[in-house]
TrEMBL record:
Species name: Sphingomonas lenta
Domain of life from the UniProt record: Bacteria
Keywords: Pyridoxal phosphate, Transferase
Name of the protein in question: 8-amino-7-oxononanoate synthase
Family annotation (NCBIfam families): SerpalmtaseAlphaP, SerpalmtaseBetaP
Family to which this protein belongs: Belongs to the class-II pyridoxal-phosphate-dependent aminotransferase family.
GO molecular function, one term: transferase activity
Cofactor: pyridoxal 5'-phosphate
Length: 419
């Protein structure tokens, strides 16, 4: 044969890899933990299938009509008729995919249009669309802070921020979650000369708490650092133009880079960075997670562009989302649940439970009665917490939330989570 490998030279029955050299041995504890959980008779919280999706707030799961209270569909844009029409038109005119990188053949009319829509939405000079928000963090963080420079990040940062740090060559320093004092202390210990990037999030997605961005940005600037804010969980409903927590706290002139995603309020998939930095466009030539991957399908960017432009005027939806957050937070607090924040700070309401058994029992009771929430557990959660994470949608109705509250009450009493 061409390779010189004769069929008879292939051992068709090789000996098993010795256990100490089986690369999967390290997953044994994880496999055992999952088997023990399933053996206790509960449904697997990480294997849910939506058999039908009827609206931003309703799906069919295993034959049961279910209220969705654990998606990032904050503004309910996934079934918007204009968004769907834009996606269909692009699918028909430009086909199902781009077959290439943004840098080569993978930039179509609608990728440019989505970037134009982002520039309009954020009032920013530059916008760069990535294939996911994960890749936007990975790419921007690993590229803008290099060898001999520093990244200073909140200890509770999203996995994509941590992975961006790991991928790059900068020194990484963590500060205590939302602690302005600790940020100041750690920046003060660093040498003055090297470039520094402070990475923050507007809303932290596990507990739904908002960052004191104003104070943090002031501290970062005092130490000569640039600032990146990940506004994934705030787009559409904070600040006069819905730009996010940084706009709400009056920081438009001070934040250097905004990271965002199409997978939450925008209602499709994709990620982006917007910036006014005069040299920002060079990122298109240097950022590996932008270059070495295929670009988004034209239908996806067309839906994103339409959705973003509609979000600029979605004042009623925004108001309704906040009403929903206040209603759910108030109702759960009144029943005695322990929540991630004392007040409703965002569209995420996290219910803190004692342990995995109680969290899974509550999760299952809710699901069996037709309410889906997210089960969140370490390592995704801070401080080893087990959470049922509820995320609200502008399209949730009062009737749906009344039903959710009644079911939380029943499940909470049955599992001992409330008295
Ligand atoms: N940043 C934050 C804060 C997130 O929560 C997420 C996703 N949950 C991302 C980035 C990644 O976004 P995407 O889903 O577009 O990859």
């Amino acid at each position: 044969t061409e390779t010189g490998l004769q069929p008879e030279a292939i051992d068709l029955d090789p000996p098993a890899v010795a256990p100490e050299r089986d690369l999967f041995s390290k997953f044994d504890p994880l496999i055992a933990e999952r088997e023990a959980l399933l053996a206790s008779g509960v449904r697997d919280p990480f294997a849910i299938v939506m058999d039908e999706v009827r609206s931003p707030t309703e799906a069919v799961i295993k034959g049961r009509e279910t209220i969705l209270l654990g998606t990032y569909n904050y503004m309910g844009m996934t079934f918007d008729p204009d968004v769907i029409a834009a996606g269909k038109e692009a699918l028909e005119k430009f086909g199902s995919g781009t077959n290439g990188s943004r840098m080569l053949n993978g930039t179509f009319r609608d990728h440019v249009d989505a970037e134009e829509a982002l520039k309009e939405f954020y009032g920013a000079r530059h916008a760069m669309v990535f294939s996911t928000g994960y890749q936007a963090n990975l790419g921007i963080i690993s590229t803008i802070a290099g060898r001999g420079e520093y990244i200073i990040l909140d200890a509770d940062s999203h996995a994509s921020i941590y992975d961006g740090c790991k991928m790059g060559d900068a020194e990484v320093v963590r500060f205590r979650h939302n602690s302005v004092e600790d940020l100041d202390k750690r920046l003060g210990r660093l040498p003055k000369e090297p470039g520094k990037l402070v990475v923050l999030e507007g809303v932290y997605s596990m507990l739904g708490d908002v960052a004191p961005l104003k104070e943090m940005v002031a501290v970062a600037k005092k130490h000569g650092a640039m600032v990146l804010s990940d506004e994934a969980h705030s787009m559409g409903f904070y600040g006069p133009n819905g730009r996010g927590v940084y706009e709400d706290q009056g920081l438009e002139a001070d934040v250097d880079f905004i990271i965002g995603t199409f997978s939450k309020s925008v209602g499709t998939v994709g990620g982006f960075c917007v910036s006014n930095h005069p040299k920002f466009e060079v990122m298109r030539l240097a950022c590996r997670p932008y270059i070495f991957t295929a670009s988004l399908p034209p239908s996806v960017v067309a839906t994103a562009a339409t959705s973003i432009r509609k979000l600029m005027h979605a004042h009623n939806k925004r108001q309704h989302l906040w009403e929903n957050a206040r209603k759910l937070h108030g109702g759960l607090t009144a029943m005695g649940f322990k929540l991630g924040t004392a007040e409703p700070e965002s569209a995420i309401i996290a219910v803190i439970l004692d342990d995995q058994t109680q969290a899974v029992a509550m999760w299952q009771a809710l699901l069996e009665n037709g309410v889906y929430v997210n089960m969140a557990r370490p390592p995704a959660t801070p401080a080893g917490m087990f959470l049922l994470r509820c995320s609200l949608c502008a399209e949730h109705t009062t009737e749906q939330l009344n039903r959710v509250l009644a079911l939380f009450g029943e499940a909470g009493r049955a599992t001992g989570a409330i008295g």
